[in-house]
Amino acid sequence: MPDFETFPPVPKVVTVAGTALELTPIRLGELPRLLAAVRPLAADLSAEPDWLDLLARHGEAVLELLAITTRRERAWINDLSLEDAVQLAAAVFEVNADFFVGRVVPAIQGAAQHLAPILEQMQAGTRRLPA
Fold first, then answer.
1. Whole-angstrom Cα distance, residue 87 to residue 21?
2. Which residues are within 8 A (CB) of 116 and not within 5 positions of it... i.e. 6 or more apart?
3. For residue 78, what is the enclosing H or E element?
4. What are the CA-CA distances from residue 77 to residues 20, 67, 97 (Å)?
5. Distance in angstroms (rounded) separating the CA atoms of residues 46 and 2
6. pLDDT for 27-76, tens place per residue?
7. Measuring CA to CA, how many Å separate 60 from each of 20, 54, 99, 119, 124?
8. Euclidean distance between the first and final Cα of the chain, in Å?
9. Signed CA dihedral, 102, 109, 41, 28: sign only
10. Which residue from 19, 72, 103, 117 has the highest number of Cβ atoms inside 10 Å of its Cβ?
11. pLDDT of 84
């Protein structure tokens, strides 16, 4: 019964910038903002993300993602050192890995596979978007 070993979820405590944060999996009410924040970087997520690269290419999205998942004000996130931000991002990802790797990445990959032939047809001029 491994599914019940983590129910209810036990918070992961991480100390960042002198503050102990209790990280728990995302909640239903956080999903709309979280999905909007993760969309720009979803294609670049993997089981072991390169947080410095993600921050360089998708900085605003990563910072918003950290604010949502830590339930902290964005100003607090903005004031973190780079080292603390990377540590926090890794901890957040660990707590929510099943969501990011198990749901977001496959959904983005599936959508891309579905859209690829349509986009190819559009580029070739053989298909038009519905009016």
1. 12
2. none
3. helix 74-78
4. 14, 6, 20
5. 24
6. 889 988 988 888 888 888 777 888 889 989 999 999 999 999 999 999 99
7. 24, 10, 20, 28, 34
8. 51
9. negative
10. 72
11. 95
**pLDDT over 90 at 79, yes or no:** yes
The confidence score (pLDDT) of residue 16 equals 94
pLDDT band at 119 (very low <50, low <70, confident <90, very high): low
C-alpha closest to that of 12 among 76, 93, 91, 98: 91
Residue type, 35: L
**In the numeric block, which tokens belong to residue 128?**
């038009």
**Which amino acid, one-letter code, is at 32?**
P
**Alpha carbon distance 32, 29 (integer Å):** 7
Question: Which H or E element spans position 13?
Answer: strand 12-16
Residue 114's Cβ-count burial label (10 Å; 0-12, 13-18, 19+) is exposed
